[in-house]
Amino acid sequence: MVAHLIEWPPVVPERYQLIYLSRLATEASPSCVAEIVRSARQRNQALGIGSVLVFNGGHFCQYLEGEAAAVLDLAGRIRADRRHADFTLLHQGVLSGPPLFGGCSLVYALCYDDSLDRLGQARGPQAVALLADLLPTLDREP
Hints:
By secondary structure, the chain is of the alpha+beta class.
């Protein structure tokens, strides 16, 4: 009889968080945002990524959390997406604790003021905290 070895301590995928800002590329139409939201919800759910996407008509702010490799791969694909320009990383790092925004595959929110400009001045965990404070004031859908 062959004994099966169980690794101890168990390997648990590291939870990771990342937040960025980008601008809607000049050659992209704002109507493409609906397709971004639809496809992101499907892809994020399949990858186990939770996300918040805020759009103000010209700029995006997105928070991603999930397994580190999946989050970093997704951020790389977003950075290369021709619908995004001026990709600016505000924070990335290990997430300790529960999911920050409920672990939903994608919460989409609209911003009608200069809040994303203020958020763009923050770096590190402060950027995540500012987004968490801003989210209840936004026009959002689940």
